[in-house]
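Re: weekly structure request thread

Next one in the queue (500 aa):
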Amino acid sequence: MSPSNQDHEPLKLGTLLEDNVQFVLQALGNSSDIKIRHIRIDLGGTPLNGAILHVDGLSNLHQMLQSLLTDNTAPDKAIRSSEQLLEYYKVSVISEGSVADVTTMQELLDSLLSGNSILLVDHCSYGLSVGTKDLKARSVEEPNVQSVVRGPREGFTEVLTWNTAMIRRKIASHHLWIESMKIGEVTKTETAIIYLDHLVNEDVLSEVRRRMSEIDIDGILESNYIEEYIQDKHFSPFPTVFNTERPDVVAAGLMEGRVAILVDGTPFALLVPAVFIQFFQSSEDYYQRSDFATLIRLLRFVAFVLAMLTPSFYIAISTFHQEMLPTTLLYNLASQREGVPFPAFVEALLMELTFEILREASVRMPRTVGQSISIVGTLVIGQAAVEAGLVSAAMVIVVSITAISNFVLPAFNLGIAARIVRFALMLLAASFGLFGIFVGLIMVVLHLCSLSSFGISYMGPLAPFRRSDQKDSLMRVTFPRMFTRPKILHPRNLIRQKRR
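Done, posted below.
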C-alpha cells in the first residue's frame, strides 16, 4: 500500500500504534537502519504504549529519551486521553528545538527520512515529529578551489543549515530572506533560495522561483543539476550561472541584489544573475588595495586572451604569415621545424591533447602523487618529444604559456570555456590563417553579446555600456567611491552609501 496516492487524499495515521509502526516498516522495506524504541507511559494508572521511530545515523535520541523517560507519568489528572498527553509532551516535556504534528503517513515518512524522530502513542491519530537531526559532516574548512592570500578562510560544507548560518553570520539583517524548496521525486533534496528583499529585483526573483519550481527530476545530488535546468542557454561554452564555495562571495552578491541558491549535500552555491565580467573577479580583489586589485584583474583578462589565442596565432603565423616574423626568429623557427614530420596544426593539437590528458590524470590521481605526475610528466614528455623530433621547442613554449594562462582565471568553468574556444580557433587558424582567427573572434563576441542571465545582459556593463558600473568592471576603485550598486542588476535600492 502506498503512503499517498495522487488520485486520493493522503493516507491518515490510524489510532492503533502497532498498525502505524507496521505500515512504516513495510513502506521502508523493513530497512535495517529504521530503529524503533518502545516506551510505556502511565496515563492515570493505565499503562499506555508508545514508540519512537528514527533512522540510525541521522538522529540523536539521547536528549529526547532523557526527557521522556524522566517524565513518563501524566502529572495532571485532567490528562485522560492520548491526544492530551501528546500535547503535554509537546509543550512541557520535549526540550528539542522543533516539534510538529504529523497527521499523514507521507508527512511521517518525509520527516523520518530527513533525520527527525517520530513519537507515536496508542489510541492517537497523529504523532509528533521532533527535531533530533545529528548529521555527520565535514567541518568548516578553507576552500580548496577558490583560496585567497588575504581574506576569510571558511568555505561552505555539505550541510545546508550550516551554510545558511554562515551567510546569516555575515549578513545579520532582517531583510535576508530564505525560501526552502524540496526538489527530486526520489531524493527530495532540500534547497534554499536566499535574497535580500529590499534589494532584489522582483522580476529576477520571480524567474528564479519559476525555473526552480519547473524542475521535474528523480534526484538532485549536486548544484550543477539545478544549474543546467535554470541556465539561459544550454549550448554555450560560457557559464551563465556563477558558482562559488565561499560564503563571503555569496554575501557580496546578495548585497548587490543577486539571488543565491544553496543545495543540501554540496559546498557549491549558485549566484544569479551572472555576467561575463563577474568570472574575472576574485574575492581577494576586495581584500587588497584597489590599485593592486586593478592590476591583477587586468592581468586576468590578458591571461584569458592568451589562453584562447596563443596556439592559434602560432599556427596561423607559422603556416600562412611567415613574413610577419623577424628574419632571425623566422630562421630559428624554420630550423626547429626542419625535422618535425607534422604540420603546425597537428603539432599543436598533439601537444594540447597531451597536456589535457596530464591535467586530468593529475586531478584523478591521489594527492600524494598527482602533483609529481603533472610536473614530471610535463617536463619529461615535453623534452622527450622535442628530442624525438615530434614537436618543436617553440611549440612546447606556446603550450606552456597557454596552460599557465588558463590557471590564472579565478573561475574554473570559465577556463573550460577558454579551452573549448581555443580548439575551435586552432582549426580556423589552420584553415584560413589570421582571417579565420578574426572571424572566429567576431563569432565569439557576437555569441557573448547574445547571451543573457535571468533577463540581464551577459556582457553588461560593457555592452550595453554603463559608465557608473565601470567602477568595478575592468578596474576597481576604492570603496569610498563605490556609491551605487550595479545598475545592470536593477536593484530596488541603488544607493550603496552616501557621498562624502
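The CA atoms of residues 156 and 200 lie 23 Å apart. The radius of gyration is 30 Å.
Next request, please.
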